[in-house]
Amino acid sequence: MSEIEHININISSLNHNTPPLPPSPPLPMKVLSDWRKTNNKQIVQVKKEEEIMKKKEENERIKRLNGWTKETNVMTITFIYKLKSSRTINNFYFYNLKKKENRWSWAIIVISTLTATLNLLNNIETEPFEYYFIIIKIVLTLFTIGITLIAAWIKKQQYVERINMIDRYLQKINKLIEEVEMQLIMQPIDRDPYDKFKAKYIPQIREYLSSSPSMSPIAWKKTVYEITRYYPELISQGNANENKLWPWYGYKHDGSGNILRPKTDFGDVIIQSYNSKNVCYKIGNLLCKNNKKILEDEGKDGNKDGNKDKDKHKDKNKDKSKDGNKDGNKDKSKDGNKSKDGNKD
Fold first, then answer.
1. Which of 45, 90, 125, 171 is the most exposed place for a label (fewest CB within 10 A)?
2. Which among 182, 183, 173, 181 is positioned nearest to 205, based on CA atoms?
C-alpha cells in the first residue's frame, strides 16, 4: 500500500468518525423583520438613485442633442440680468424726461392762456385806471418772452427726440427679454437649437447692451438713487433669484449650473454718494448735528443743575437733622433737670 492510499484511508476514517455539526438555532422573528426592512430600504434607495441618474443622463443627452449645456444656459441667464437692469434704469429715466417735458409744456399752455386773456383786456376803448394799457403791454411782452424762452429750452434739451428714442429702445428690449425668457422657461428639447438661438439673439443682445440711450452722470446717479431709495420692491420682486436686479445683486456660478445672487453694496454706495452731493442733505445734516449738540449741551446743563439741586437738598436735610438733634438734646437736658429738681423736693 502506498503512502497516498494510506492517507486517504485515514481521512475517510476521520470523516466517518467525526460527529455532524449541530444545526444553528433559528433567528428571532424581530431580527428577521428588521433585516428585511433595512434590506428593502436599501433596495428602494438604490432604485431611486438609479432613476435619478437615468433622468440626469437623459436630460444631459437631450441638452447635448439640442446644443444646450449648463454653460450656455448660465451665460444666457447672465445676459438676461444685464438686459433687465438696463431696461429698469432707462424706464425710470424715460418717465423722468416725460415729467420734465410735461411740466414745461404745461407752463407754455398756462402762459399762452393768460396772454390770450390779456389780449382781450387790451381791446377795451377806455382805460379803467392810469397806465392800464402800458401795464397790459408790459405783461404781454414778458409773457411772450417767457413762452419763447421755454420753447427754446425744450428744443435745446431735445426732450421730444430723447423720449421717442428711449421709447423705441424700451419696446425693443422688452420684446427681446420676453423672447429669451420664453426659450429658457421651456424644456431644452422644446427650445430652438442653440446654434439657431445664438445666431438670432446674441447679436441683438450685444446691440442693446452696447447702444443704451445716453444720459449724463448726474441723471444716471439720480435715477439709480430713486430706484434704490423709493422703489426697493423693483430691485427684488418676491425675493426670487430671477427677479433680482444687477448690480444691486451680484451673480456667482457654483459650478453645477446654479446661479447664486448675493447682495452687493451698490445701493449703499449710491445713497452715500448722492447725499454727499446734495446741498439740502448737507444743510439738513449740519442742522441735525447742531441740534444734537444743543440737546447734548442742554442735557449736560440739566445734569449739572440737577446735581446742584440734589446737593442743596442734601445740605438742607443735613441742617434739618442737625437742628433736630440739637433740639432733642436740649429737651432731654431740660427734662433731666426737672427730674433732678423733683428728686430734691
1. 125
2. 173
Given 160, 191, 215, the domain boundary residue is: 215
Is 334 within the bounds of a domain? no
User: What is the number of domains present in the chain?
Assistant: 2
Most confident of 16-30, 48-62, 116-130, 149-163: 149-163
Q: How far is CA 180 from the centre of its chain?
A: 25
Q: Which residue range is the domain that position 208 belongs to?
A: 42-215
Question: Do 57 and 171 sit in the same domain of this protein?
Answer: yes
DSSP output for 161-213: HHHHHHHHHHHHHHHHHHHHHHHHHS-TTTSPPHHHHHHHHHHHHHHHHHSPP
285 and 168 inside one domain: no
Quick: pLDDT tens for 18-68. 455 455 555 556 555 666 666 666 777 777 787 887 777 766 665 566 788
> Can you tell me the distance from the alpha carbon of 71 to that of 198, in angstroms, rounded to the nearest whole number?
13
Other Cβ atoms within 10 Å of 94 Cβ, number: 19
- Backbone phi, then psi, for 98, in 5-degree steps? -65, -35
Beta carbons of 180 and 76 less than 8 angstroms apart: yes
pLDDT the model gives residue 143: 94
The whole model's pTM is what? 0.62
Q: Which three cell numbers stand for residue 129?
A: 385806471
Examine the domain organization and report whether 162 and 298 are in the same domain.
no
Interatomic CA distance for residues 151 and 143, integer angstroms = 12
